[in-house]
Amino acid sequence: MIPDPSQKYKAYPPIALADRQWPDRKLERAPIWCSVDLRDGNQALAVPMNVSQKLELFDALLKCGFKEIEVGFPAASNTEFAFMRRLIEDGRIPADVTVQVLVQAREDLIQRTFDSLKGVKNAIIHLYNSTSPAQRRVVFGLEKPDIVAMARRGTQWIKDRLPLLAGSNIRLEYSPESFSATEVEFSLEVCEAVMEVWQPSAERPIILNLPDTVEVSMPNVYADQIEWFCRNLKCRNAAIISVHTHNDRGTGTAATELAMLAGAQRVEGTLFGNGERTGNLDVVSVALNLYMHGIAPGLEFSDINALREVYERCTGMTVPPRHPYGGELVFTAFSGSHQDAIRKGLAEWQKNGETGIWDIPYLTIDPSDIGREYREVIRVNSQSGKGGVAYLLESEYGIELPKDLQREFGPLANDAVDALGREVSGAELKKMFWQEYIERSAPLELQHFHADGTGGVHRCRASVVFHGKELAVTGEGNGPIAAFVNGLKSAGIAELEVTDYRQAALGSGTEASAISYVRVQTSDGRSVWGAGVNTNIELSSIQGVVSAINRALLGAQGSK
Predict the structure, then answer these.
(1) Is-cis flag, bond preceding 324, omega within 30?
(2) Helix (H, G, I), strand (E, B) or coil at 398
(3) Maximum Cα–Cα distance for the chain, whole Å?
(4) Which of 116-125, 369-378, 411-420 has the highest mean pLDDT?
(5) For a Cys staple, 264 with which of 148, 181, 259, 453, CB 3.0–4.6 Å?
(6) Does the predicted TM-score (pTM) go above 0.90?
Protein backbone atom coordinates (compact mmCIF):
# COMPACT_ATOMS: atom_id res chain seq x y z
CA MET A 1 0.00 0.00 0.00
CA ILE A 2 1.23 3.47 -0.85
CA PRO A 3 1.56 6.16 1.84
CA ASP A 4 -0.69 8.64 0.03
CA PRO A 5 -3.49 6.78 -1.79
CA SER A 6 -4.89 10.08 -3.07
CA GLN A 7 -2.03 10.07 -5.57
CA LYS A 8 -3.54 6.96 -7.16
CA TYR A 9 -7.24 6.87 -6.25
CA LYS A 10 -10.06 9.37 -5.98
CA ALA A 11 -13.54 9.25 -4.52
CA TYR A 12 -16.47 8.99 -6.90
CA PRO A 13 -18.14 12.41 -7.11
CA PRO A 14 -21.44 12.80 -5.25
CA ILE A 15 -24.73 13.60 -6.95
CA ALA A 16 -26.14 17.11 -6.72
CA LEU A 17 -29.44 16.27 -5.05
CA ALA A 18 -29.95 18.68 -2.19
CA ASP A 19 -33.64 17.82 -1.74
CA ARG A 20 -33.22 14.03 -1.79
CA GLN A 21 -36.32 12.25 -0.51
CA TRP A 22 -35.15 8.67 0.08
CA PRO A 23 -33.71 9.16 3.61
CA ASP A 24 -37.19 9.94 4.96
CA ARG A 25 -38.92 7.00 3.30
CA LYS A 26 -39.43 3.52 4.72
CA LEU A 27 -39.79 0.18 3.01
CA GLU A 28 -43.35 -1.12 3.11
CA ARG A 29 -43.49 -3.82 0.44
CA ALA A 30 -41.27 -6.32 -1.30
CA PRO A 31 -39.85 -5.56 -4.75
CA ILE A 32 -40.23 -7.64 -7.89
CA TRP A 33 -37.51 -10.26 -7.51
CA CYS A 34 -35.40 -11.64 -10.33
CA SER A 35 -32.91 -14.42 -9.70
CA VAL A 36 -29.73 -14.26 -11.77
CA ASP A 37 -28.20 -17.42 -10.23
CA LEU A 38 -28.31 -19.33 -13.50
CA ARG A 39 -26.61 -16.58 -15.52
CA ASP A 40 -24.59 -14.12 -13.43
CA GLY A 41 -24.03 -16.65 -10.65
CA ASN A 42 -23.16 -19.42 -13.10
CA GLN A 43 -20.82 -17.13 -15.04
CA ALA A 44 -18.85 -16.55 -11.82
CA LEU A 45 -18.11 -20.24 -11.23
CA ALA A 46 -14.69 -21.69 -11.98
CA VAL A 47 -16.55 -24.75 -13.29
CA PRO A 48 -19.93 -23.62 -14.69
CA MET A 49 -22.99 -25.76 -14.00
CA ASN A 50 -23.99 -28.41 -16.50
CA VAL A 51 -27.57 -28.72 -17.76
CA SER A 52 -28.68 -31.16 -15.05
CA GLN A 53 -27.28 -28.92 -12.29
CA LYS A 54 -28.95 -25.87 -13.79
CA LEU A 55 -32.25 -27.76 -13.97
CA GLU A 56 -32.03 -28.71 -10.29
CA LEU A 57 -31.25 -25.15 -9.25
CA PHE A 58 -34.01 -23.81 -11.53
CA ASP A 59 -36.53 -26.04 -9.74
CA ALA A 60 -35.22 -24.84 -6.37
CA LEU A 61 -35.69 -21.21 -7.46
CA LEU A 62 -39.28 -21.98 -8.50
CA LYS A 63 -39.88 -23.49 -5.07
CA CYS A 64 -38.61 -20.26 -3.48
CA GLY A 65 -41.28 -18.37 -5.41
CA PHE A 66 -39.25 -16.46 -8.00
CA LYS A 67 -41.46 -15.33 -10.88
CA GLU A 68 -38.63 -13.89 -12.97
CA ILE A 69 -35.47 -15.95 -13.49
CA GLU A 70 -32.54 -15.06 -15.70
CA VAL A 71 -31.71 -18.51 -17.02
CA GLY A 72 -28.65 -17.74 -19.09
CA PHE A 73 -26.87 -16.21 -22.04
CA PRO A 74 -28.09 -18.52 -24.86
CA ALA A 75 -25.79 -17.01 -27.48
CA ALA A 76 -22.71 -17.54 -25.30
CA SER A 77 -22.34 -21.33 -25.52
CA ASN A 78 -24.01 -24.54 -26.63
CA THR A 79 -24.70 -25.49 -22.99
CA GLU A 80 -26.58 -22.24 -22.39
CA PHE A 81 -28.55 -22.64 -25.61
CA ALA A 82 -29.36 -26.29 -24.85
CA PHE A 83 -30.56 -25.39 -21.37
CA MET A 84 -32.96 -22.79 -22.73
CA ARG A 85 -34.34 -25.28 -25.24
CA ARG A 86 -34.67 -27.96 -22.55
CA LEU A 87 -36.75 -25.68 -20.34
CA ILE A 88 -39.13 -24.86 -23.20
CA GLU A 89 -39.40 -28.27 -24.86
CA ASP A 90 -39.85 -30.17 -21.59
CA GLY A 91 -42.52 -27.73 -20.39
CA ARG A 92 -40.57 -26.90 -17.24
CA ILE A 93 -41.50 -23.21 -17.09
CA PRO A 94 -44.73 -22.57 -15.14
CA ALA A 95 -47.29 -20.33 -16.82
CA ASP A 96 -46.80 -17.58 -14.22
CA VAL A 97 -43.00 -17.55 -14.48
CA THR A 98 -41.02 -15.40 -16.92
CA VAL A 99 -37.57 -16.50 -18.01
CA GLN A 100 -34.98 -13.87 -18.79
CA VAL A 101 -32.05 -14.12 -21.22
CA LEU A 102 -29.08 -11.81 -21.52
CA VAL A 103 -27.64 -10.56 -24.79
CA GLN A 104 -25.22 -7.90 -25.92
CA ALA A 105 -26.15 -5.27 -28.50
CA ARG A 106 -24.84 -7.39 -31.38
CA GLU A 107 -27.07 -8.56 -34.22
CA ASP A 108 -25.67 -12.09 -34.54
CA LEU A 109 -26.04 -12.71 -30.79
CA ILE A 110 -29.57 -11.30 -30.81
CA GLN A 111 -30.55 -13.66 -33.64
CA ARG A 112 -29.13 -16.65 -31.77
CA THR A 113 -31.05 -15.57 -28.68
CA PHE A 114 -34.33 -15.46 -30.62
CA ASP A 115 -33.60 -18.96 -31.95
CA SER A 116 -33.28 -20.21 -28.37
CA LEU A 117 -36.65 -18.72 -27.36
CA LYS A 118 -38.91 -20.37 -29.96
CA GLY A 119 -42.03 -21.65 -28.24
CA VAL A 120 -41.53 -19.74 -24.98
CA LYS A 121 -44.64 -18.33 -23.29
CA ASN A 122 -43.16 -15.45 -21.28
CA ALA A 123 -39.66 -14.05 -21.67
CA ILE A 124 -37.61 -10.96 -20.96
CA ILE A 125 -34.81 -10.19 -23.39
CA HIS A 126 -32.15 -8.40 -21.37
CA LEU A 127 -30.10 -6.13 -23.63
CA TYR A 128 -27.00 -4.37 -22.38
CA ASN A 129 -23.99 -2.34 -23.42
CA SER A 130 -21.34 -0.61 -21.33
CA THR A 131 -21.60 3.13 -20.78
CA SER A 132 -18.97 4.25 -18.26
CA PRO A 133 -16.08 6.56 -19.22
CA ALA A 134 -13.55 3.78 -18.60
CA GLN A 135 -15.48 1.32 -20.76
CA ARG A 136 -15.96 3.89 -23.51
CA ARG A 137 -12.27 4.73 -23.52
CA VAL A 138 -10.59 1.38 -22.81
CA VAL A 139 -12.93 -1.25 -24.28
CA PHE A 140 -14.69 0.41 -27.19
CA GLY A 141 -12.70 3.49 -28.04
CA LEU A 142 -16.02 5.23 -28.68
CA GLU A 143 -17.60 8.55 -27.80
CA LYS A 144 -20.99 9.06 -26.15
CA PRO A 145 -22.98 9.36 -29.43
CA ASP A 146 -21.53 6.04 -30.57
CA ILE A 147 -22.66 4.35 -27.34
CA VAL A 148 -26.18 5.77 -27.72
CA ALA A 149 -26.30 4.55 -31.31
CA MET A 150 -25.17 1.08 -30.20
CA ALA A 151 -28.03 0.87 -27.67
CA ARG A 152 -30.58 2.10 -30.22
CA ARG A 153 -29.44 -0.42 -32.85
CA GLY A 154 -29.59 -3.31 -30.39
CA THR A 155 -33.12 -2.33 -29.38
CA GLN A 156 -34.23 -2.04 -33.00
CA TRP A 157 -32.76 -5.45 -33.88
CA ILE A 158 -34.82 -6.98 -31.08
CA LYS A 159 -37.96 -5.10 -32.04
CA ASP A 160 -37.58 -6.14 -35.70
CA ARG A 161 -37.43 -9.81 -34.72
CA LEU A 162 -40.51 -9.89 -32.49
CA PRO A 163 -42.59 -11.50 -35.29
CA LEU A 164 -40.27 -14.52 -35.02
CA LEU A 165 -41.78 -15.12 -31.58
CA ALA A 166 -45.42 -14.46 -32.45
CA GLY A 167 -47.65 -15.81 -29.70
CA SER A 168 -44.99 -15.26 -27.04
CA ASN A 169 -45.14 -12.50 -24.44
CA ILE A 170 -41.78 -10.76 -24.92
CA ARG A 171 -40.65 -7.87 -22.74
CA LEU A 172 -37.45 -5.82 -22.92
CA GLU A 173 -34.97 -5.06 -20.18
CA TYR A 174 -32.16 -2.64 -20.88
CA SER A 175 -29.05 -2.20 -18.73
CA PRO A 176 -26.52 0.60 -19.14
CA GLU A 177 -23.73 -1.61 -17.81
CA SER A 178 -21.50 0.13 -15.26
CA PHE A 179 -24.34 2.54 -14.46
CA SER A 180 -22.79 3.18 -11.03
CA ALA A 181 -19.62 4.55 -12.72
CA THR A 182 -21.43 6.41 -15.53
CA GLU A 183 -22.45 10.05 -15.49
CA VAL A 184 -26.13 9.99 -14.48
CA GLU A 185 -27.02 12.43 -17.25
CA PHE A 186 -25.53 10.10 -19.84
CA SER A 187 -27.20 7.00 -18.36
CA LEU A 188 -30.50 8.85 -18.64
CA GLU A 189 -29.75 9.83 -22.24
CA VAL A 190 -29.00 6.25 -23.27
CA CYS A 191 -32.06 4.79 -21.50
CA GLU A 192 -34.39 7.38 -23.01
CA ALA A 193 -32.95 6.62 -26.45
CA VAL A 194 -33.79 2.95 -25.94
CA MET A 195 -37.30 3.85 -24.78
CA GLU A 196 -37.78 6.03 -27.86
CA VAL A 197 -37.07 3.01 -30.07
CA TRP A 198 -39.03 0.46 -28.03
CA GLN A 199 -42.05 2.69 -27.32
CA PRO A 200 -43.13 1.22 -23.96
CA SER A 201 -46.34 2.20 -22.18
CA ALA A 202 -47.74 2.09 -18.69
CA GLU A 203 -49.54 -1.13 -19.68
CA ARG A 204 -46.38 -2.69 -21.17
CA PRO A 205 -43.46 -1.01 -19.40
CA ILE A 206 -39.82 -1.49 -20.22
CA ILE A 207 -37.46 -2.65 -17.46
CA LEU A 208 -34.58 -0.24 -16.98
CA ASN A 209 -31.96 -2.03 -14.94
CA LEU A 210 -29.44 0.31 -13.33
CA PRO A 211 -26.60 -1.93 -12.15
CA ASP A 212 -24.06 -1.20 -9.47
CA THR A 213 -21.79 -3.27 -11.71
CA VAL A 214 -18.75 -2.27 -9.68
CA GLU A 215 -19.23 -0.59 -6.32
CA VAL A 216 -17.36 2.69 -6.67
CA SER A 217 -19.07 4.70 -3.94
CA MET A 218 -20.90 4.49 -0.65
CA PRO A 219 -24.49 3.15 -0.79
CA ASN A 220 -25.99 6.61 -0.24
CA VAL A 221 -24.41 7.86 -3.48
CA TYR A 222 -25.94 4.93 -5.38
CA ALA A 223 -29.31 5.78 -3.82
CA ASP A 224 -28.88 9.39 -4.98
CA GLN A 225 -28.16 8.14 -8.51
CA ILE A 226 -31.35 6.06 -8.48
CA GLU A 227 -33.52 8.87 -7.12
CA TRP A 228 -32.05 11.40 -9.59
CA PHE A 229 -32.71 9.00 -12.45
CA CYS A 230 -36.30 8.30 -11.36
CA ARG A 231 -37.06 11.99 -10.95
CA ASN A 232 -35.65 12.98 -14.34
CA LEU A 233 -36.82 10.08 -16.53
CA LYS A 234 -39.43 11.01 -19.12
CA CYS A 235 -42.48 8.73 -19.20
CA ARG A 236 -41.62 7.40 -15.74
CA ASN A 237 -44.80 5.32 -15.62
CA ALA A 238 -43.67 3.39 -18.72
CA ALA A 239 -40.61 1.98 -16.95
CA ILE A 240 -39.91 -0.43 -14.11
CA ILE A 241 -36.68 0.63 -12.39
CA SER A 242 -34.56 -2.35 -11.50
CA VAL A 243 -31.27 -2.61 -9.58
CA HIS A 244 -28.50 -5.17 -9.79
CA THR A 245 -25.81 -4.60 -7.17
CA HIS A 246 -22.43 -6.19 -6.66
CA ASN A 247 -20.46 -6.31 -3.45
CA ASP A 248 -16.99 -4.90 -4.16
CA ARG A 249 -17.10 -2.65 -1.09
CA GLY A 250 -19.08 -5.15 0.98
CA THR A 251 -22.19 -2.98 0.88
CA GLY A 252 -24.32 -4.66 -1.79
CA THR A 253 -27.21 -5.25 0.60
CA ALA A 254 -27.15 -1.66 1.87
CA ALA A 255 -26.96 -0.29 -1.67
CA THR A 256 -30.00 -2.32 -2.71
CA GLU A 257 -32.09 -1.36 0.30
CA LEU A 258 -31.29 2.33 -0.10
CA ALA A 259 -31.97 2.08 -3.84
CA MET A 260 -35.41 0.66 -3.04
CA LEU A 261 -36.05 3.70 -0.84
CA ALA A 262 -34.93 5.84 -3.76
CA GLY A 263 -37.50 4.37 -6.14
CA ALA A 264 -36.26 0.99 -7.39
CA GLN A 265 -39.18 -1.40 -7.92
CA ARG A 266 -37.29 -4.52 -8.93
CA VAL A 267 -34.22 -6.31 -7.56
CA GLU A 268 -31.88 -8.75 -9.27
CA GLY A 269 -29.59 -10.97 -7.24
CA THR A 270 -28.50 -14.47 -6.35
CA LEU A 271 -28.94 -16.93 -3.53
CA PHE A 272 -26.31 -16.30 -0.86
CA GLY A 273 -24.59 -13.65 -3.00
CA ASN A 274 -22.77 -15.80 -5.55
CA GLY A 275 -21.32 -13.70 -8.38
CA GLU A 276 -18.27 -12.16 -9.99
CA ARG A 277 -15.48 -10.77 -7.77
CA THR A 278 -16.98 -10.34 -4.29
CA GLY A 279 -20.39 -11.44 -5.51
CA ASN A 280 -23.86 -10.23 -6.41
CA LEU A 281 -26.53 -9.07 -4.06
CA ASP A 282 -27.68 -11.83 -1.71
CA VAL A 283 -31.43 -12.00 -2.32
CA VAL A 284 -31.94 -14.17 0.77
CA SER A 285 -30.52 -11.44 3.00
CA VAL A 286 -32.65 -8.63 1.59
CA ALA A 287 -35.81 -10.76 1.58
CA LEU A 288 -35.35 -11.86 5.20
CA ASN A 289 -34.38 -8.33 6.23
CA LEU A 290 -37.85 -7.31 5.03
CA TYR A 291 -39.37 -10.31 6.81
CA MET A 292 -37.79 -9.37 10.16
CA HIS A 293 -39.47 -5.95 9.82
CA GLY A 294 -42.86 -7.56 9.36
CA ILE A 295 -42.99 -7.22 5.55
CA ALA A 296 -44.02 -10.27 3.51
CA PRO A 297 -41.00 -10.80 1.20
CA GLY A 298 -42.82 -12.70 -1.53
CA LEU A 299 -40.18 -15.44 -1.40
CA GLU A 300 -40.25 -18.67 0.59
CA PHE A 301 -37.25 -19.75 2.64
CA SER A 302 -38.98 -22.03 5.15
CA ASP A 303 -36.30 -24.71 4.71
CA ILE A 304 -33.14 -22.70 4.25
CA ASN A 305 -30.93 -25.66 5.13
CA ALA A 306 -32.31 -27.68 2.21
CA LEU A 307 -31.96 -24.69 -0.11
CA ARG A 308 -28.35 -24.24 0.98
CA GLU A 309 -27.64 -27.91 0.25
CA VAL A 310 -29.04 -27.61 -3.30
CA TYR A 311 -27.10 -24.40 -3.89
CA GLU A 312 -23.82 -25.90 -2.68
CA ARG A 313 -24.32 -29.14 -4.60
CA CYS A 314 -25.14 -27.38 -7.88
CA THR A 315 -22.61 -24.55 -7.76
CA GLY A 316 -19.73 -26.15 -5.87
CA MET A 317 -19.69 -23.03 -3.68
CA THR A 318 -20.05 -23.06 0.11
CA VAL A 319 -22.05 -20.74 2.32
CA PRO A 320 -19.72 -19.31 5.00
CA PRO A 321 -20.66 -20.30 8.58
CA ARG A 322 -21.43 -16.70 9.56
CA HIS A 323 -23.25 -15.74 6.34
CA PRO A 324 -26.49 -13.85 7.16
CA TYR A 325 -29.45 -16.17 7.80
CA GLY A 326 -28.11 -19.14 5.82
CA GLY A 327 -24.77 -19.79 7.53
CA GLU A 328 -24.41 -22.75 9.88
CA LEU A 329 -23.51 -20.57 12.86
CA VAL A 330 -25.71 -17.48 12.42
CA PHE A 331 -28.21 -18.62 15.04
CA THR A 332 -25.45 -19.87 17.30
CA ALA A 333 -24.02 -18.17 20.37
CA PHE A 334 -20.82 -19.21 22.10
CA SER A 335 -20.56 -16.20 24.41
CA GLY A 336 -21.86 -17.04 27.86
CA SER A 337 -23.79 -13.78 28.32
CA HIS A 338 -25.39 -14.16 24.89
CA GLN A 339 -26.35 -17.74 25.65
CA ASP A 340 -27.94 -16.81 28.94
CA ALA A 341 -29.97 -14.02 27.35
CA ILE A 342 -31.12 -16.25 24.47
CA ARG A 343 -32.10 -19.05 26.84
CA LYS A 344 -34.15 -16.71 29.01
CA GLY A 345 -35.73 -15.07 25.97
CA LEU A 346 -36.76 -18.41 24.50
CA ALA A 347 -38.19 -19.49 27.85
CA GLU A 348 -40.31 -16.33 27.97
CA TRP A 349 -41.45 -16.86 24.36
CA GLN A 350 -42.53 -20.43 25.12
CA LYS A 351 -44.23 -19.35 28.34
CA ASN A 352 -46.29 -16.86 26.30
CA GLY A 353 -47.44 -19.63 24.00
CA GLU A 354 -45.04 -18.61 21.23
CA THR A 355 -47.32 -15.76 20.19
CA GLY A 356 -46.97 -11.99 19.97
CA ILE A 357 -44.12 -9.87 18.64
CA TRP A 358 -40.75 -11.61 18.50
CA ASP A 359 -38.27 -9.88 20.81
CA ILE A 360 -35.55 -12.34 21.76
CA PRO A 361 -32.09 -10.97 22.57
CA TYR A 362 -29.54 -11.60 19.82
CA LEU A 363 -32.02 -13.36 17.48
CA THR A 364 -33.48 -11.08 14.82
CA ILE A 365 -35.94 -13.73 13.61
CA ASP A 366 -37.31 -16.99 14.96
CA PRO A 367 -34.95 -19.69 13.61
CA SER A 368 -37.87 -22.08 13.24
CA ASP A 369 -39.43 -19.76 10.61
CA ILE A 370 -36.69 -20.75 8.18
CA GLY A 371 -36.38 -24.38 9.18
CA ARG A 372 -33.77 -24.10 11.89
CA GLU A 373 -34.20 -25.57 15.38
CA TYR A 374 -33.77 -24.06 18.80
CA ARG A 375 -31.18 -26.69 19.70
CA GLU A 376 -28.99 -25.14 17.01
CA VAL A 377 -29.08 -21.76 18.71
CA ILE A 378 -26.76 -22.37 21.65
CA ARG A 379 -23.52 -24.26 21.35
CA VAL A 380 -20.65 -24.53 23.78
CA ASN A 381 -16.94 -23.89 23.50
CA SER A 382 -14.34 -22.37 25.81
CA GLN A 383 -15.96 -18.93 25.41
CA SER A 384 -19.29 -20.14 26.73
CA GLY A 385 -20.70 -19.73 30.20
CA LYS A 386 -23.08 -21.51 32.51
CA GLY A 387 -26.09 -20.42 30.46
CA GLY A 388 -25.03 -22.35 27.36
CA VAL A 389 -24.07 -25.42 29.36
CA ALA A 390 -27.39 -25.38 31.17
CA TYR A 391 -29.35 -24.86 27.96
CA LEU A 392 -27.84 -27.84 26.16
CA LEU A 393 -28.34 -30.18 29.11
CA GLU A 394 -31.94 -29.05 29.46
CA SER A 395 -32.91 -28.96 25.77
CA GLU A 396 -31.27 -32.23 24.79
CA TYR A 397 -31.61 -34.34 27.95
CA GLY A 398 -34.19 -32.67 30.17
CA ILE A 399 -31.56 -32.01 32.86
CA GLU A 400 -32.68 -28.72 34.39
CA LEU A 401 -29.92 -27.63 36.75
CA PRO A 402 -30.74 -25.35 39.71
CA LYS A 403 -29.30 -21.85 39.32
CA ASP A 404 -26.63 -22.29 41.97
CA LEU A 405 -25.61 -25.66 40.51
CA GLN A 406 -25.28 -23.95 37.12
CA ARG A 407 -22.83 -21.52 38.70
CA GLU A 408 -20.85 -24.40 40.15
CA PHE A 409 -20.77 -26.72 37.13
CA GLY A 410 -20.42 -23.99 34.46
CA PRO A 411 -16.78 -23.10 35.26
CA LEU A 412 -15.88 -26.79 35.63
CA ALA A 413 -17.30 -27.53 32.18
CA ASN A 414 -15.60 -24.48 30.66
CA ASP A 415 -12.22 -25.57 32.03
CA ALA A 416 -12.70 -29.02 30.50
CA VAL A 417 -13.80 -27.54 27.15
CA ASP A 418 -10.87 -25.12 27.22
CA ALA A 419 -8.49 -28.04 27.64
CA LEU A 420 -10.07 -29.74 24.61
CA GLY A 421 -9.71 -26.58 22.55
CA ARG A 422 -12.89 -27.11 20.52
CA GLU A 423 -16.67 -27.03 20.57
CA VAL A 424 -18.37 -29.80 22.55
CA SER A 425 -21.70 -31.54 22.04
CA GLY A 426 -24.57 -31.94 24.45
CA ALA A 427 -23.58 -35.60 24.87
CA GLU A 428 -20.07 -34.59 25.91
CA LEU A 429 -21.44 -32.09 28.43
CA LYS A 430 -23.72 -34.74 29.88
CA LYS A 431 -20.74 -37.08 30.24
CA MET A 432 -18.79 -34.34 32.04
CA PHE A 433 -21.71 -33.80 34.43
CA TRP A 434 -22.07 -37.52 35.08
CA GLN A 435 -18.37 -37.91 35.82
CA GLU A 436 -18.29 -34.90 38.11
CA TYR A 437 -21.51 -35.61 40.05
CA ILE A 438 -23.37 -38.85 39.33
CA GLU A 439 -20.51 -41.34 39.14
CA ARG A 440 -18.72 -40.27 42.35
CA SER A 441 -18.02 -43.43 44.40
CA ALA A 442 -14.97 -42.50 46.47
CA PRO A 443 -14.04 -42.11 49.20
CA LEU A 444 -17.66 -42.90 50.19
CA GLU A 445 -19.70 -45.58 48.40
CA LEU A 446 -23.27 -46.57 49.19
CA GLN A 447 -23.86 -50.33 49.38
CA HIS A 448 -27.35 -50.57 50.84
CA PHE A 449 -30.01 -48.23 52.17
CA HIS A 450 -33.38 -48.76 53.83
CA ALA A 451 -35.58 -46.29 55.69
CA ASP A 452 -38.99 -46.36 57.36
CA GLY A 453 -40.80 -43.98 59.61
CA THR A 454 -43.93 -43.14 61.58
CA GLY A 455 -45.10 -39.99 63.35
CA GLY A 456 -42.66 -37.72 61.53
CA VAL A 457 -39.61 -39.71 62.62
CA HIS A 458 -37.66 -41.69 60.02
CA ARG A 459 -35.03 -44.31 60.76
CA CYS A 460 -32.47 -45.55 58.30
CA ARG A 461 -30.16 -48.52 58.08
CA ALA A 462 -27.40 -48.40 55.54
CA SER A 463 -24.09 -49.96 54.71
CA VAL A 464 -21.31 -47.92 53.11
CA VAL A 465 -17.68 -48.34 52.17
CA PHE A 466 -15.55 -45.45 53.40
CA HIS A 467 -11.88 -45.34 52.38
CA GLY A 468 -12.10 -49.05 51.61
CA LYS A 469 -13.67 -50.02 54.95
CA GLU A 470 -17.25 -51.27 55.17
CA LEU A 471 -19.33 -49.54 57.85
CA ALA A 472 -22.88 -49.82 59.13
CA VAL A 473 -24.80 -46.57 59.38
CA THR A 474 -27.97 -46.00 61.38
CA GLY A 475 -29.71 -42.74 62.11
CA GLU A 476 -32.93 -40.87 62.77
CA GLY A 477 -34.38 -37.66 61.35
CA ASN A 478 -37.50 -35.96 60.04
CA GLY A 479 -37.02 -37.65 56.65
CA PRO A 480 -34.82 -40.26 54.92
CA ILE A 481 -32.16 -37.71 53.97
CA ALA A 482 -31.95 -36.25 57.48
CA ALA A 483 -31.80 -39.74 58.99
CA PHE A 484 -28.95 -40.70 56.65
CA VAL A 485 -26.97 -37.48 57.28
CA ASN A 486 -27.33 -37.93 61.07
CA GLY A 487 -26.18 -41.51 60.71
CA LEU A 488 -23.06 -40.38 58.83
CA LYS A 489 -22.32 -37.89 61.59
CA SER A 490 -22.68 -40.60 64.26
CA ALA A 491 -20.34 -42.86 62.29
CA GLY A 492 -17.73 -40.09 62.14
CA ILE A 493 -17.83 -39.95 58.36
CA ALA A 494 -18.96 -36.36 57.68
CA GLU A 495 -20.10 -33.25 59.55
CA LEU A 496 -22.47 -31.40 57.24
CA GLU A 497 -25.94 -29.97 56.75
CA VAL A 498 -28.24 -30.35 53.74
CA THR A 499 -29.21 -26.82 52.64
CA ASP A 500 -31.01 -27.49 49.36
CA TYR A 501 -32.74 -30.45 47.77
CA ARG A 502 -34.43 -30.63 44.34
CA GLN A 503 -35.82 -33.53 42.39
CA ALA A 504 -36.98 -33.99 38.79
CA ALA A 505 -37.97 -36.76 36.41
CA LEU A 506 -35.70 -37.94 33.61
CA GLY A 507 -37.62 -39.53 30.75
CA SER A 508 -41.08 -41.04 31.00
CA GLY A 509 -42.85 -44.38 31.23
CA THR A 510 -41.13 -47.52 32.47
CA GLU A 511 -37.70 -46.09 31.61
CA ALA A 512 -38.19 -42.99 33.76
CA SER A 513 -35.60 -42.13 36.39
CA ALA A 514 -35.39 -39.50 39.06
CA ILE A 515 -32.51 -37.06 39.33
CA SER A 516 -31.87 -35.44 42.69
CA TYR A 517 -29.78 -32.35 43.32
CA VAL A 518 -28.49 -31.99 46.88
CA ARG A 519 -26.49 -29.09 48.28
CA VAL A 520 -24.62 -29.53 51.54
CA GLN A 521 -22.76 -27.12 53.79
CA THR A 522 -19.55 -28.43 55.29
CA SER A 523 -18.19 -27.67 58.74
CA ASP A 524 -15.79 -25.11 57.24
CA GLY A 525 -18.69 -23.21 55.61
CA ARG A 526 -18.39 -24.41 52.03
CA SER A 527 -21.51 -25.16 49.98
CA VAL A 528 -21.10 -28.08 47.60
CA TRP A 529 -23.57 -29.72 45.24
CA GLY A 530 -24.07 -33.39 44.54
CA ALA A 531 -26.44 -35.32 42.27
CA GLY A 532 -27.87 -38.80 42.08
CA VAL A 533 -29.91 -40.72 39.51
CA ASN A 534 -32.02 -43.78 40.23
CA THR A 535 -35.35 -45.29 39.24
CA ASN A 536 -36.13 -45.20 42.97
CA ILE A 537 -36.82 -41.61 44.04
CA GLU A 538 -35.61 -42.15 47.60
CA LEU A 539 -32.37 -43.77 46.50
CA SER A 540 -31.65 -40.98 43.99
CA SER A 541 -31.75 -38.46 46.85
CA ILE A 542 -29.44 -40.56 49.06
CA GLN A 543 -27.02 -40.97 46.15
CA GLY A 544 -27.13 -37.20 45.74
CA VAL A 545 -26.02 -36.83 49.37
CA VAL A 546 -23.17 -39.31 48.79
CA SER A 547 -22.12 -37.38 45.65
CA ALA A 548 -22.02 -34.09 47.57
CA ILE A 549 -20.02 -35.63 50.43
CA ASN A 550 -17.48 -37.12 48.04
CA ARG A 551 -17.05 -33.83 46.24
CA ALA A 552 -16.71 -31.98 49.56
CA LEU A 553 -14.17 -34.45 50.96
CA LEU A 554 -12.10 -34.25 47.77
CA GLY A 555 -12.07 -30.44 47.88
CA ALA A 556 -14.34 -29.99 44.88
CA GLN A 557 -15.11 -26.45 43.81
CA GLY A 558 -17.89 -24.93 45.86
CA SER A 559 -18.83 -21.58 47.35
CA LYS A 560 -18.47 -19.98 50.74
Answers:
(1) no
(2) coil
(3) 107
(4) 116-125
(5) 259
(6) no
Q: What's residue 357's pLDDT?
A: 96
d(CA 353, CA 259): 39
Render 87-129 in DSSP notation, one character per residue: HHHTT-S-TT-EEEEEEES-HHHHHHHHHHTTT-SEEEEEEEE
Using CA atoms, how far apart are residues 198 and 170, in angstroms rounded to an integer? 12
- Residue 211 and residue 247: Cα distance in Å, rounded? 12
Give the whole-angstrom CA distance, residue 208 versus residue 422. 51
- Report helix, strand or coil for 176: strand
Distance (Å, rounded) from C-alpha 484 to C-alpha 472? 11
Q: Which element (helix H / strand E) includes 404?
A: helix 403-420
Residue 436 and residue 35: Cα distance in Å, rounded?
A: 54
Question: How confident is the model over 534-559, as pLDDT tens digits?
Answer: 999 999 999 999 999 999 998 765 55
* Cβ burial, residue 540 (10 Å; 0-12/13-18/19+): buried
Sheet of strand 513-522: strand arrangement: 496-506, 513-522, 527-534
Mean pLDDT of the chain: 93
- pLDDT of 377 strictly over 70: no
Does residue 385 carry a pLDDT above 90?
Answer: no
* Nearest-angstrom CA–CA distance, 121 and 61: 18
Burial of 371 by CB count in 10 Å (0-12 exposed, 13-18 middle, 19+ buried)? middle
Contacts for 449 with CB less than 8 Å, ≥ 6 apart: 460, 461, 462, 484, 538, 539, 542
The span from the CA of 545 to the CA of 407, in Å, is: 19
Model confidence band, residue 560 (pLDDT cutoffs 50, 70, 90)? very low
- Cα end-to-end span (Å), the chain: 58
| Helix intervals (H) in 141-268 | 144-161, 184-198, 219-232, 252-261
R_g over Cα of the chain: 34
CATH code reported for the domain at 24-315 = 3.20.20.70
Q: Which CATH number is associated with domain 444-553?
A: 3.30.160.270
CB neighbour list of residue 266: distance below 8 Å, 6 or more residues apart: 31, 32, 33, 34, 207, 209, 240, 241, 242, 243
CA nearest to 61, candidates 311, 244, 305, 268: 311
How far is it, in rounded angstroms, from Cα 159 to Cα 153?
10
Could you tell me the residue ranges of all domains in the chain? 24-315, 336-436, 444-553
Q: What is the pLDDT of residues 49-107, one digit of tens each?
A: 999 999 999 999 999 999 999 999 999 999 999 999 999 999 999 999 999 999 999 99
